[in-house]
Amino acid sequence: MKPAPFAYHRPGSREEVDQLLAQLGSEAKILAGGQSLIPILNMRLAAFGHLVDLNHLAGEPAEPAVAGDELVVGPLVRQAAALESALVAERAPVVSQALRHVAHPAIRSRGTVVGSVLHGDPAAELPAAVALLAGSVRARSRRGTRPIPAARLWTGALENTLAEDEWVDELRLPVRQPDDGFAFEEFARRSGDYAICGVAARVRAADGELKAAVAYLGMGGLGQVHALQPMAAEEIDGPGLRSALTEAVAELDPGDDLHASARYRRWLALELGLSCVRRAAERALK
Amino acid sequence: MTTKLFGERVERREDRRLLTGIGRFTDDLGHDAAQAAFVRSDFAHARIRDIDVSGALDVEGVLGVYTHDDLQGGFAERLPLLIPHRDLKAPRTQYALARDELCYAGEVIAMVVASDRYIAEDAAQAIRVEYEELPVVVDLEQAVGAGPLTHSDAADNIGAHVSEMKGDVEIALASAPHVFKWRFRPERSASMPMEGRAVFARYDAGQDTLEVYDSTQAPTGIRAGLAELFELDWDRVHVIAPDVGGGFGVKVMQFYPEEVLVPWASRQLGMPVKWTEDRREHFIGSNQERGQIHEVRVGVDAEGRILALDVRFLHDTGAYCPYGLIVPIITAAQLPGPYRLSNYRYSFWSVFTNTVPVSPYRGAGRPQAVFVMERVIEHVARELGLDSLDVRRRNFIQPDEFPYDVGVSWQDGGPTVYDSGDYPSGFQLLLDSIGLDRARQQQAEARAEGRLVGLGVGCYVEGTGIGPYEGATISILPDGTVSAATGLSTQGQGHETIFAQIVADELGVPLERVSVTTGDTRRIGFGVGTFASRSAVVAGHAMLRAARSLRDQTARLASTTLEVAVEDLVFEAGAVHVRGVPEKSVPLARLTLVSNPLRYAYGRDARLAAELAQRAYAKADRPLPEGSRPGLSALEYYSPAAGVFGYGMHAALVEVDRRTCNLRILRYVIVHDCGRIINPLIVDGQVLGGLAQGIGGAFYERIHYSPEGQIQNASFMDFLIPYATEIPPVELHHLETPSPRNELGVKGVGEAGTIPVPAVIANGLSDALGVAIDHVPLSPEEIFQLLHPEPK
Amino acid sequence: MSVRVRSELQRVTLTVNGAAHELEVEPRWLLSDVLRHQLGLTGTHVGCEHGVCGCCTVLADGRPARSCLMFALQAEGLEIQTVEGLASADGTLHPLQEAFRRHHGLQCGFCTPGFLIAALPFYRTAEGMSDQELREALAGQLCRCTGYAGILQAVRAASRIEGERSQA
C-alpha cells in the first residue's frame, strides 16, 4: 500500500496554484489535508502525475473568519480548527455539530473543511451541513473566479463541478439568523465512521410559524435540501412533522450496502430526522 | 523460599522497550534489505493462461521477478499439510507460487523483489496475468450441493467427514418427551492483529547459513521446515520471532507462501530480503475462521434436561486446509461445554470454498460451539416455558463428577476428559455479581417504558495446555543474573514476566535479575509454539523443571563450596545461604565462576572465585571432575499427559435502541476460572482483551464475500474492529480451581475471553427483542429487519 | 503500462523530537516510512496505511496526525514528535508511559506508541473525564489485545503520577 510515483509541487501563492493547474490540467490533483486522498493513493485506487500541495501557501488563514453576513473558510482551515472555533459555533453551529462526527482527532487535525466539502462523499458530514446552509465555494483558475453554490457543486458521489484548471480558495457560509435553530444527528457503526445515515436540520422561527429544512447524509444524494411546509410549533411534536419528513424521505434514493439496506436507511432518516428537527426547533424557539 | 512471585500482580518486564519505541518488530529490522511484493489472484477461481512479467523487469530498481516456473525442488511443491488426520481424505494445500489453478482471490501468483517496497509495488502492478475464469463457490450449502467445484480436478468439495457418538443418540431421541430441531450459522471472521505478518531473511552464502526473522507464533517449526527445504543442517538455519504485534492464531500456519519465498529469494539474490504484509494483503492473504452451518436435534425432558444432542455441521475450510481438521474437531469436542450430555453425536463435513484458507483464530471453533449450545439452551427453555438459567443449572456437570469424560476425541487425538472445575459455583457467582433480581427488575421496568432490554448469559469450557511439549533452558550468568529461554514465541501474553516469576521463585532471585527470551531458535531449537492457550501450562512447567534442575546443580556445587549438606542450603536474594548461619553464604554469581575451573581476569569476583574453585574441586582428580560441567545451566522439557480445561460464564444486560436499532451493552460481567493464576495483571488483560474481540465477533466483525468470492470489506473502514467507544466497562471475577494435572495447578487463559461473547450478546438480543437469533455476528441492519420485517 | 521511472529525490529538513534532520526523499514516501526507515525511529508503527488504526499517530505541531497519511515532504516546517521523544534522556519514563506499565495498558505493544501519542495532548485533563468522554477521546486508535480497559485506566492515572512526581 504505497502510492505510485508523482511529481510534487509546492506553490507559495494562490496565483502559483492557478498557474500550475493551467499547465498540468487533468494530470494534477490538489493536496490539502490529504486525509481522503492519501488513503486512495496508498491503495492505488487512483494515481496522479502531479500533486499540488497547498500546505505552504503563504498567508492563508488557519481559522474561519466572518466577512459581512458570511463565514469565510479558507482552503487550509483544518477541521480541528473549525471545530474549536467559537466563531463557527456561534455563527454556523450546524458546522460545529457536524464536525464532532467527522472521523477522529488525528484526522481532523490534518483534514481541511474545504477538502472534505469538495471530496463529496455522500456519507460525509460537511457536505450536508454546507448544503443545508446553502453555502457556496469560490472556484478559481487563471481564467478568474466564480462562485458555485452548494446545490450545483456536486454531480454525484465523489464528483464535483470544478473544471480541470479550477480549485477552491474559499468556502462561504451564510451566518445564522437570530431565529434559526440548528441540529445535527447521525448514526454510524463505530464512533467516527462515515454515517449510515445522518441529518442536518435548520428551523427558522418566523411569523409564528416554523420553517424547517433538512439535508441528509448517507442517503445517496449530495447537495439536496428538503424544505418542509411551514408548520405551527405544536405540529413539530405532532403528526405534522412526521408526515412532512416522510415525504422528504420518500424523495431520497439510498442504496443497499454491506452495512445497511435502503429500507433501514429510510427508517433511520425518518427517526433521526424527527428528533433532529425537534431539537433544532427547540433551539429556534429559545 | 521467601516471598513468592507466583500469584503476584507484578508489572511486566517487557513493557519498557515497548513503551519507549525501542521494541523490535520484524519490520523494524533490515532497513537496507531488498523488499518483496506479490501479485495476487484477482479472481476467486481461475486458471492462469499467461503471466507477462516484462513490464516489471523494466522497472528501475527491480532485483528479481519470480513465478512458479522459477521454483525448483521442494519449493515448487505444494506447501505442507501441518496436521494430517486419518479422516482427511482429500487434503489440499497451495503452492508457494500458484502453478496453474487459482482457488481464492488473493492466492499468490508472482513475487517481485526490488530495492524498496514502493518500487516493488510499481513492478507488481506492471505484471500482466491472463486468467481463464472458472465457476466460483462461496456458499457452504451450495458447496455440498450442486455448486461448482473449488478445485476443478476434485470429485466434490468435501475434504473430510468425521462423526463420533457418545451413548446412543437415536434411542435417546426416540424416547425423549420433547425433540426440537434448529439451525445456526456463525459467519466468517478474522484474527486481524495490528501488525500484519512479516518475514526478513538473510542468507549468507559464505557460511551457508540462513537467518530469518518472522512475525510468527511458531518459529521452531518454521526453522525445522526451512532446514529441510533448504537442505541445510538445523544449526545453519535460525528463525527468530522478535516482538510480534499480535497473533490470535493467524500467525501460526507453517507455512504461508511468503515464509518460504522470502528466504528463498534471499538465497537466489545473495542479499537480505524483507517482506512486510500490508493491510490489504492481510485481508486477502492471511487465514480466516468461524464460518459454519449447524443443524441440531435435541431431546429433552419436561424440566429441560438434555437427553440427547445430535449436531451435524458444515465447516468452511476455505480453499485449502493446511491446518487439517483442528477447528471443526474443537467445535465438536467443545460443544457440550459445561453440560452433561449422556447421548451426544456430532457429524461434520469440512468443506472447500473459493475463499481465503481457514485456520484457528482465537477461540478456534469454540465461539461457534458455544453459540450453538447456548442458543439451544435458550430455545429449549422458551419451548418448554422454563427459565433458561434453571435449564443450565439442571444440566451442569457437578464438581464431584471430575474427571469428566465428554466422550468424544480431543484435538490431540486423545479423549476429551475435563480435569477440574466448579460450574454451579461459577454460575452462582455470575448471577450474584450481575445482581439477578435487580437486573430482572430493571429489565421489567425498562420494558414497561417500552424499552428493549434483555439479559444474555453464556457458559463455556475451554480445553487448554495441550502438548506435545515445550522446553526451557536457564543459565546463571557470571553477573548473577539469570537468563532463561523457551522456544515458543510471544505476541503480547507477557511470557517474559510470568516465566521470570516461576524461575525467580525457584532460584530465589529478584524478578528483575531474570531475563526471558522467547521464540529464538539460536537459544533453544526444540519447541512447538504459542497457540491453543498452552504457553503458561506447557512452557511454564518446562521453566519450573529447568529452574529446579539448575537449583539442584547449583546446590551441589554450593554444598562443596560451603562445606554443608545440600539439605541445609537456602536460595534467597541471589545467593545460596546456610540455613541458620546467615553470614555463611555464596552469591550465585560467584558460583558460576566457581563451576568453571578456568582463569580469567575480568569480573569482580574472579579472585575469590578462583580460591573457591580450588576448594570446590580440591578432592577431584582432574580440573573438572567427572559429572560436573562448567557454568550453571539446565535444559528441561515438559510434555503434558493431557490438556487442562478452564471455564467461565459471562452475563450481559443489553438494550436495543428503538430508533437506531443499535446495540448498547448496559452491563457486562465475567466469571472466569483458569486454575491458579500466575499473574493477575496479565490474566485480567487476557480476559478483557479476549472480550473485546468477542464483542467484535458478536456485533461488528464479519468478512463479507460476494458470490464471486471477493471480500467486500477488505479495509478497516468496513471491517469494523471496535474502538474503545464500542467496548463496555466490564466487571471481572476469578475463581481458582487448580488443575490436578500439573504441579502449578494452572490452566491456559489466552482464548477464554473471546469464546462465549457471541452467544451472550445473541442471547441478550434475543431476550430483548423476543425473537430467535440463529447467526452471529449481528448488526443494526439485522436488528432492524427483526424488529420491522419486510411486509410480504 | 508505461515504465515507471523512479521519481526524483528531493531535499527536506525534518524536525523530529527537537532534532533537525536533512534528508533526501521521494515525494511519494510517506512520513511513517521515512521516520522508520530513513531516521530509524521505528517506534512509530504502521498498521493499516489508510488512516483507521492509529498505530502511526505522531504529533505534528502538537496535534495528533496519521504519519501514514502525510508525505514526508509535507512535514517540512512542522515539529514532529514521536514516541521516542517521550521518556527523559536519563531513561525516566514519561508519566503516561509509567501509567501504561502500571495498569497493563499494553500487551503486544504494537498499537502502544499511537495511543501514547494520541493521549499526550489531553492526558492532563483525563482524570476529570467521564468514561464515555475518555473513550471518545481515544477512539481513532485501535487496540486488538487489551480490550482498552488498561489503556483507559492508564490515561486517567497519568496526571496523578505526574503530580506524585512533582511533589517528590
From TrEMBL, chain A:
<dbReference type="InterPro" id="IPR016169">
    <property type="entry name" value="FAD-bd_PCMH_sub2"/>
</dbReference>
<keyword id="KW-0285">Flavoprotein</keyword>
<dbReference type="InterPro" id="IPR036683">
    <property type="entry name" value="CO_DH_flav_C_dom_sf"/>
</dbReference>
<feature type="domain" description="FAD-binding PCMH-type">
    <location>
        <begin position="1"/>
        <end position="178"/>
    </location>
</feature>
<dbReference type="InterPro" id="IPR005107">
    <property type="entry name" value="CO_DH_flav_C"/>
</dbReference>
<dbReference type="InterPro" id="IPR016167">
    <property type="entry name" value="FAD-bd_PCMH_sub1"/>
</dbReference>
<keyword id="KW-0274">FAD</keyword>
<dbReference type="GO" id="GO:0016491">
    <property type="term" value="F:oxidoreductase activity"/>
</dbReference>
<dbReference type="Pfam" id="PF00941">
    <property type="entry name" value="FAD_binding_5"/>
</dbReference>
<keyword id="KW-0560">Oxidoreductase</keyword>
<dbReference type="Pfam" id="PF03450">
    <property type="entry name" value="CO_deh_flav_C"/>
</dbReference>
<dbReference type="InterPro" id="IPR051312">
    <property type="entry name" value="Diverse_Substr_Oxidored"/>
</dbReference>
<dbReference type="InterPro" id="IPR016166">
    <property type="entry name" value="FAD-bd_PCMH"/>
</dbReference>
<protein>
    <submittedName>
        <fullName>FAD binding domain-containing protein</fullName>
    </submittedName>
</protein>
<dbReference type="InterPro" id="IPR002346">
    <property type="entry name" value="Mopterin_DH_FAD-bd"/>
</dbReference>
Automatic annotation (TrEMBL), chain B:
<dbReference type="InterPro" id="IPR037165">
    <property type="entry name" value="AldOxase/xan_DH_Mopterin-bd_sf"/>
</dbReference>
<dbReference type="InterPro" id="IPR016208">
    <property type="entry name" value="Ald_Oxase/xanthine_DH-like"/>
</dbReference>
<dbReference type="InterPro" id="IPR036856">
    <property type="entry name" value="Ald_Oxase/Xan_DH_a/b_sf"/>
</dbReference>
<dbReference type="Pfam" id="PF20256">
    <property type="entry name" value="MoCoBD_2"/>
</dbReference>
<dbReference type="InterPro" id="IPR000674">
    <property type="entry name" value="Ald_Oxase/Xan_DH_a/b"/>
</dbReference>
<dbReference type="Pfam" id="PF02738">
    <property type="entry name" value="MoCoBD_1"/>
</dbReference>
<dbReference type="GO" id="GO:0016491">
    <property type="term" value="F:oxidoreductase activity"/>
</dbReference>
<dbReference type="Pfam" id="PF01315">
    <property type="entry name" value="Ald_Xan_dh_C"/>
</dbReference>
<dbReference type="InterPro" id="IPR008274">
    <property type="entry name" value="AldOxase/xan_DH_MoCoBD1"/>
</dbReference>
<dbReference type="InterPro" id="IPR046867">
    <property type="entry name" value="AldOxase/xan_DH_MoCoBD2"/>
</dbReference>
<protein>
    <submittedName>
        <fullName>Xanthine dehydrogenase family protein</fullName>
    </submittedName>
</protein>
<keyword id="KW-0560">Oxidoreductase</keyword>
<feature type="domain" description="Aldehyde oxidase/xanthine dehydrogenase a/b hammerhead">
    <location>
        <begin position="20"/>
        <end position="135"/>
    </location>
</feature>
<dbReference type="GO" id="GO:0005506">
    <property type="term" value="F:iron ion binding"/>
</dbReference>
<keyword id="KW-0500">Molybdenum</keyword>
From TrEMBL, chain C:
<keyword id="KW-0479">Metal-binding</keyword>
<dbReference type="InterPro" id="IPR051452">
    <property type="entry name" value="Diverse_Oxidoreductases"/>
</dbReference>
<dbReference type="GO" id="GO:0051537">
    <property type="term" value="F:2 iron, 2 sulfur cluster binding"/>
</dbReference>
<protein>
    <submittedName>
        <fullName>(2Fe-2S)-binding protein</fullName>
    </submittedName>
</protein>
<dbReference type="GO" id="GO:0016491">
    <property type="term" value="F:oxidoreductase activity"/>
</dbReference>
<keyword id="KW-0560">Oxidoreductase</keyword>
<dbReference type="Pfam" id="PF01799">
    <property type="entry name" value="Fer2_2"/>
</dbReference>
<dbReference type="InterPro" id="IPR012675">
    <property type="entry name" value="Beta-grasp_dom_sf"/>
</dbReference>
<comment type="pathway">
    <text>Alkaloid degradation; nicotine degradation.</text>
</comment>
<dbReference type="InterPro" id="IPR036010">
    <property type="entry name" value="2Fe-2S_ferredoxin-like_sf"/>
</dbReference>
<dbReference type="InterPro" id="IPR002888">
    <property type="entry name" value="2Fe-2S-bd"/>
</dbReference>
<keyword id="KW-0001">2Fe-2S</keyword>
<keyword id="KW-0408">Iron</keyword>
<feature type="domain" description="2Fe-2S ferredoxin-type">
    <location>
        <begin position="10"/>
        <end position="86"/>
    </location>
</feature>
<dbReference type="Pfam" id="PF00111">
    <property type="entry name" value="Fer2"/>
</dbReference>
